[in-house]
Request: fold
Amino acid sequence: MRYKIKSAVAYTRKMKIKVFLRWFFYSLTLVMLYSIMSCGAFELWQPYMIFALAVGVSMREQEFSSSVFGIFCGFMLDISSGTLFGFFAVCIMPCCFVTSLFSRNLIKVNILNHLLFTGGTALFSFSLYYLFNYVIWSTDGRGLIVTKILIPSFIATLITAPLIYWLTKFLASKFGQEQNENLDEAVEEAVDKAEEKRKSRRIINVDRKNKYIRDLEKENSRNRNAFEERKGK
Reply:
């Protein structure tokens, strides 16, 4: 397997339409989740489903587009949470890049990995939020922030993450991304097999060459010994 960042590819008109629709529904889902978070219906058990959406999209899209989408997800979280504008964007963007890179080279796209990366993104973001807003300023009652707000929100985020996983999977398969990924994987696998075959042939040729050299050296040694014997007589 070759580990690399995917480059841009040429799209047909049909593929462009599917890409547009896919990103349109990704964006529509982001707006809907922002509306759910802004209404405050869950109170202290507020699920940060935007984390799960950012991870779900990143597991199926390229690194650059995933990072840009992660920035917009962070902006929506900043607005709905009332934090410093750009704070969550800085937190989510590198997580989306790493998620996309790992999903295309090291791990499989499944619900377990989605939960792991969603939990990791939420934990990383909540930790930085708690550090810069409460720990640095020595805010009174910061322990209650962890037990009454951050931990319930973290648990609620993981509980609702499977819904977002199946939604992003449906959108990706509906608008062509799943088929493109399978085709890319098949092409990469064929190229890898061809490289391994060339390497094996090269090794075989080297072995044959070494065997020929050894046989030639043995023949020269026998001729040299026979010549010395005749010379001695």
Observations:
- Residues 87 and 129 are 8 Å apart (CA to CA).
- The two ends are 65 Å apart (CA to CA).
- Residues 13-175 form a domain with the Arp2/3 complex 21 kDa subunit ARPC3 fold (CATH 1.10.1760).
- Confidence is low (pLDDT under 50) at residues 1-5.
